[in-house]
């Protein structure tokens, strides 16, 4: 047995491992040396191979264990975010029942998000891979809260400002819960009348919080203004530029990014790079230019080293990204490098688990 080889039991055998020594049953070679293990091979070995152990590539075991740890971490993040969404739904139901926001509930929920904030890289990856799907209220609000918190940190906000920003993001879409329309998560299918109703949701949420004693005005402004746009095309007030509070500008970016990833913007062929490219496009008139650049630079830091799958089903690693050419990153596929500027036929489909 070589120095890099390892002796393991069949029960510990996993897909992707490499056989380091041929497996023989009744003088017949069942699996040749160098074979990469598949589920069908595992089943076959469990059916006919009676030995307690077999020899596999030890380095491959290390890789597999790292992959399992990575998968476990991603699953834990998804579980945590689902729990946040469930807690937020309960909090919103309580608000609807009592007709007011319990400031202590808001503070406690905000603190739970901060305390349980595990692996920003995994959170960003989960948002990119899953978005908020059909849940445009609770899961969406959790995603927007986390993305807003990240951007606030990248903007070097103080601890107090970060708390207030988080309060704003948590409550920004409460108004949607008061709109009795099952299609609110699919704006492309709404009638003009329904769309006008949807445009009331920032005002509904603002009216909920405007009379809360000791709650900063910045939270109230951020809530009512989060759909305003710098060119005046937003709602409900049609504000422009510096008339829009900075919290609203931040939430607008996070809100738009999650909508794009979740395909509520009705964009075609959205992938992690296309989503950032769209945000960059919106920075030219609709969303704050400087905030957008800082958001993009912060997010792409979590892209480096990740694996993506191409339209030819190859899996490649992200090596470099040009912020001025977001849709054409430099990738490494096995021993080759792919420069998208020279391969127009290739497209990125999305992230994969490493």
From TrEMBL:
SUPFAM superfamilies according to UniProt: HD-domain/PDEase-like (SSF109604)
CDD domains: HDc
Location of the HD-GYP domain: 115-311
InterPro entries: HD/PDEase_dom, HD_GYP_dom
PROSITE patterns: HD_GYP
Coiled-coil region: none
Regions crossing the membrane: none
Annotated Pfam families: HD_5
Protein name: HD-GYP domain-containing protein
């Amino acid at each position: 047995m070589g120095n890099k080889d390892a002796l393991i039991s069949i029960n510990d055998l996993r897909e992707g491992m490499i056989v380091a020594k041929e497996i023989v049953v009744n003088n017949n070679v069942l699996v040749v040396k160098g074979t990469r293990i598949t589920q069908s091979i595992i089943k076959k070995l469990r059916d006919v191979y009676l030995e307690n152990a077999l020899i596999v590539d030890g380095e491959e075991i290390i890789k597999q264990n790292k992959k399992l740890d990575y998968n476990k971490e991603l699953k834990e993040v998804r579980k945590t975010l689902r729990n946040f969404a469930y807690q937020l739904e309960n909090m919103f139901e309580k608000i609807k029942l009592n007709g007011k926001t319990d400031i202590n509930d808001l503070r406690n929920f905000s603190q739970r998000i901060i305390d349980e904030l595990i692996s920003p890289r995994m959170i960003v990856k989960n948002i990119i891979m899953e978005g908020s799907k059909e849940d445009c209220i609770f899961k969406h609000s959790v995603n927007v809260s986390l993305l807003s918190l990240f951007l606030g940190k990248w903007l070097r906000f103080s601890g107090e400002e970060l708390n207030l920003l988080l309060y704003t993001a948590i409550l920004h879409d409460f108004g949607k819960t008061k709109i009795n329309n099952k299609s609110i998560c699919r704006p492309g299918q709404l009638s003009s009348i329904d769309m006008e109703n949807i445009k009331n949701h920032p005002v509904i949420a603002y009216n909920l919080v405007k009379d809360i004693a000791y709650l900063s005005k910045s939270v109230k402004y951020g809530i009512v203004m989060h759909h305003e746009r710098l060119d005046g095309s937003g709602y409900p007030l049609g504000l422009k530029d510096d008339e829009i509070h900075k919290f609203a500008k931040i939430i607008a970016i996070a809100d738009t990014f999650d909508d794009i990833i979740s395909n509520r913007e009705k964009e075609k062929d959205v992938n992690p790079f296309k989503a950032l490219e769209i945000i960059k496009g919106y920075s030219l008139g609709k969303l704050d230019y400087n905030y957008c650049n800082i958001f993009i630079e912060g997010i792409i830091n979590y892209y480096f080293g990740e694996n993506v799958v191409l339209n030819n089903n190859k899996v490649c690693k992200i090596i470099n990204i040009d912020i001025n050419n977001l849709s054409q990153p430099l990738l490494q596929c096995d021993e080759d490098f792919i420069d998208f500027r020279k391969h127009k036929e290739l497209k990125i489909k999305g992230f994969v688990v490493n």
